[in-house]
């Protein structure tokens, strides 16, 4: 086995501090950004960092922020403006050619803009004129259902509640949000199995856990504040297992920047005891093996199952039908290793299963979450201190937005409650989610697109098709802080409305206002920016929504403007309309860190159809991915046998692989801070990661140019490249490329059946080495990937 170049330092530590400082300088936000860092995640006037949804420590700390968070804050607090002068210098056609990195660094949006087709430029527009155009176009539509209202998870609770209320008063449930592309299987399956689609654990449970199994996560890059809790749990004697096709170097050890002994003496904490390096898409198969062994060896909690669950017998029958040969084929792990892990599960009195998008973003993503929940139910690990389900979400308030009612498939109880409180009918038909909305845009069924934050087209599959579809609409509206790729494909009317960021003060006639967020573990807390807004011509999201409601809906007995001036009024309405928020204003002020929302399953109360926790049998065979690859290999071999030049070298043949998309250490979702991926030892984004043993077996070399191709659900071949072949400790038959650059490889019809989550993390592809005659060294620009 060839030695793999690895990052030899612990996670965080001095490299994180250096990288964070450089990014503050890079964004020209050293002073503003540093002030924000000091207030990030602090009680009594601090704001919730938008960098992730990991819970805040309840103890007072001088600093509670990570490298990723500082980079996000640097982006939000940059002093450079994307104002009228910026847009006067650049046409939209020119900006379409900019990379994500270049757009990210273009500056803060600082005044409302409207696209002018004759000049191919954005021009300034007065707020009232912008509102009037939006109202005229929305009220022209044949039906409110011809408009799509998207939401980013960085929107706080108060504007989220107001936004869904405005959209429903307008007449539609077309309210997709970014959770459709990240943790939708979590919401759907936990809701079905436990009664609430949220984590059953609190942060304190990690201090009591004896076994933590992390599925499909890379905390060192995506939520670094989790590292401190993992290191603490490990020091308390908790075993930590990472289940991941990639051996992430950032999980080897952790050097805590807040510990002088770590920074001065070079100490670090160990974290992960073992890595189970499954093949991509093998999670359900591995979990099947664990469940099968536990049942066969009478290691389950029979009393809990009898008292609190339903559906055990069908699951047991299904498990009996699964062979160990299929389990091994499905996950790429030998039976002995699976049994060894099962024995650790059996021996643990308190187990937490935690997961990220490596679990959810699959065609079989619903099954993956169902099997994690099945495992916890088999062991009676729901409703026990130190144990439970812990999905880790990325956006800092994506969970809160859903709680506030931003949902395309709302529960009827929510609509009943809104009708009771606001004394008006609410639309009852389900709306479009991200996938359905994108398809409707492409098919010309939608005439207006409104985005409350986010980067819809770039984040979704079929990026180019969605961007083209946006040019055919009558209206596109973007509320945001930064320019992004979705804003650059204008329809008949394209308007940008700049808003105040999470780090900035919101001051109204009623004084300084604060908002609230809900983290991944159901804790609701205050968030209050501390900086002067970057421009006098930007407004709070709440104010923008209230103004839109006034223009679009006309006279109303809902006090939109009063709510925009006093967020307490919004929270009083939330208290009346949303379960769990009774006495909202008092409770969120009462404690430094707010309050925890009641979670019935944590108390073994099951708000499910059966009235009990529900076992679920997977819908897909556990060999689903292996079969896909085998079928693709057979088709490819037949094609090669038919057309192969007898003089062609065998090592230049195409090969079938399973592709996963990954984020670098220098990005946050579609925000590209830079090209460095410190833990993966690369400084470019146009790469394809592959195990060095696989590279050698093919007779290829690190640095070779390759293309990756995928046949979509409509039998259309999609190709990305050329990319630079790069080494990574990744499972056999697996390759990885960066998101969002690879999004055009994925189509909108390849998704999980119930949650409709796109399959970003598991797609069968063909990898082909590109000869020097096909592409010159200069044809691949650093930091870019080319799709065809």
How is this fold's topology laid out?
Layout: E1 11-12, H1 13-26, H2 30-39, H3 67-76, E2 81-82, H4 84-89, H5 92-96, H6 100-104, E3 108-109, E4 113-116, E5 121-124, H7 127-140, E6 147-151, H8 157-170, H9 184-194, H10 205-208, E7 211-215, H11 219-222, H12 225-235, E8 239-243, E9 253-255, H13 260-265, E10 269-270, E11 274-276, H14 283-296, H15 302-308, E12 309-310, H16 312-321, H17 324-331, H18 335-347, E13 351-355, H19 357-360, H20 365-378, E14 388-391, H21 398-403, H22 412-422, H23 434-442, E15 448-452, H24 456-459, H25 463-470, E16 475-480, E17 494-498, E18 506-508, E19 511-513, E20 515-518, E21 523-527, H26 541-553, H27 560-565, H28 567-577, H29 584-590, E22 595-596, E23 613-614, H30 624-643, E24 655-662, E25 667-668, E26 671-672, E27 687-690, H31 692-697, E28 705-711, E29 717-727, E30 734-738, E31 763-769
Parallel strand pairs: 1-9, 2-3, 6-15, 7-8, 7-13, 8-11, 12-23, 13-14, 15-16, 16-17, 24-30, 27-29
Antiparallel strand pairs: 4-5, 4-17, 9-10, 18-19, 20-21, 21-22, 24-31, 25-26, 27-30, 28-29, 28-31
């Amino acid at each position: 086995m060839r030695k793999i170049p690895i990052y030899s330092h612990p996670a965080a530590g001095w490299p994180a501090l250096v990288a964070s400082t450089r990014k503050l300088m890079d964004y020209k936000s050293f002073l503003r950004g540093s002030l924000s860092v000091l207030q990030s995640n602090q009680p009594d006037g601090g704001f919730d960092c938008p960098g992730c949804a990991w819970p805040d420590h309840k103890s007072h700390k001088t600093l509670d922020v990570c490298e990723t968070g500082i980079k996000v804050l640097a982006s939000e607090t940059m002093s450079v403006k994307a104002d009228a002068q910026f847009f006067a210098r650049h046409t939209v056609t020119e900006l379409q050619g900019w990379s994500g990195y270049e757009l990210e660094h273009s500056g803060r949006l600082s005044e409302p803009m409207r696209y002018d087709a004759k000049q191919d430029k954005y021009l300034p527009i007065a707020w009232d004129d912008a509102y009037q155009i939006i109202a005229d176009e929305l009220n022209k539509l044949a039906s409110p259902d011809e408009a799509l209202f998207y939401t980013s998870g960085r929107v706080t609770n108060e504007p989220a509640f107001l936004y869904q209320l405005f959209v429903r008063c307008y007449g539609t449930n077309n309210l997709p949000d970014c959770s459709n592309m990240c943790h939708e299987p979590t919401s759907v399956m936990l809701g079905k199995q436990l009664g609430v689609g949220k984590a059953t654990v609190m942060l304190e449970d990690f201090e009591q856990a004896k076994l933590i199994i992390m599925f499909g996560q890379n905390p060192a890059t995506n939520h670094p504040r989790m590292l401190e809790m993992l290191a603490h749990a490990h020091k308390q004697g908790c075993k930590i297992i990472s289940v991941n096709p990639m051996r992430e170097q950032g999980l080897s050890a952790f050097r805590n920047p807040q510990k002088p002994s770590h920074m001065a003496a070079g100490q670090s904490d160990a974290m992960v005891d073992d890595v189970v390096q499954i093949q991509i898409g093998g999670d359900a198969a591995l979990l099947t093996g664990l469940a099968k062994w536990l049942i066969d060896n009478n290691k389950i909690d029979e009393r809990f199952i009898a008292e609190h669950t339903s559906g055990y017998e069908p699951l047991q029958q299904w498990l009996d039908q699964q062979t160990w040969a299929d389990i091994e084929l499905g996950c790429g792990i030998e039976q002995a290793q699976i049994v060894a892990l099962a024995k650790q599960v059996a021996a643990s009195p308190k187990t937490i299963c935690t997961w990220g998008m490596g679990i959810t973003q699959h065609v079989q993503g619903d099954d993956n979450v169902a099997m994690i929940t099945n495992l916890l139910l088999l062991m009676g690990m729901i409703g026990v201190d130190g144990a439970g389900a812990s999905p880790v979400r990325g956006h800092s308030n994506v969970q809160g937005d859903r709680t506030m009612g931003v949902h395309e498939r709302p529960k009827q109880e929510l609509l009943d409650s809104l009708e009771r409180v606001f004394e008006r009918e609410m639309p009852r038909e389900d709306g479009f989610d991200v996938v359905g909305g994108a398809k409707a845009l492409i098919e010309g069924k939608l005439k207006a697109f409104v985005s409350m934050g986010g980067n819809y087209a770039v984040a979704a599959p079929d990026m180019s098709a969605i961007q083209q579809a946006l040019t055919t609409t009558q209206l596109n509206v973007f509320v945001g802080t930064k320019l992004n790729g979705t804003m650059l494909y204008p329809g008949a009317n394209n308007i940008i409305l700049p808003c105040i960021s999470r780090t900035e003060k919101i001051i109204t006639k009623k004084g300084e206002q604060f908002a609230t967020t809900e983290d991944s573990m159901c804790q609701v807390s205050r968030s209050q920016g501390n900086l002067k807004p970057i421009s006098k011509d930007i407004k709070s999201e709440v104010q923008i929504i209230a103004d839109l409601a006034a223009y679009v809906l006309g006279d109303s007995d809902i006090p939109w403007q009063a709510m925009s001036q006093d967020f307490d009024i919004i929270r009083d309405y939330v208290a009346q309309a949303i379960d769990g928020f009774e006495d909202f204003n008092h409770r969120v002020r009462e404690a430094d860190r707010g309050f925890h929302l009641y979670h019935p399953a944590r108390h073994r109360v099951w708000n499910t159809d059966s009235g009990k926790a529900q076992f679920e049998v997977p819908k897909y065979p556990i060999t689903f991915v292996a079969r896909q690859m085998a079928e693709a290999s057979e088709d490819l071999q037949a094609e090669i046998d038919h057309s192969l030049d007898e003089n062609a070298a065998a090592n230049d043949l195409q090969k079938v692989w399973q592709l996963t998309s990954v984020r670098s250490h220098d990005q946050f979702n579609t925000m590209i801070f830079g090209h460095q991926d410190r833990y993966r030892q690369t400084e470019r984004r146009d790469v394809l990661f592959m195990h060095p043993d696989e590279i050698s077996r093919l007779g290829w070399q690190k640095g070779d140019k390759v293309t990756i191709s995928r046949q979509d659900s409509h039998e259309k071949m999609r190709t990305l490249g050329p990319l630079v072949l790069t080494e990574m400790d990744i499972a056999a038959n697996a390759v990885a490329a960066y998101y969002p650059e690879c999004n055009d490889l994925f189509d909108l019809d390849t998704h999980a059946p119930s949650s409709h989550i796109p399959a970003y993390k598991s797609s069968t592809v063909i990898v082909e080495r590109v000869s020097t005659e096909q592409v010159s060294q200069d044809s691949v620009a650093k930091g870019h990937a080319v799709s065809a």
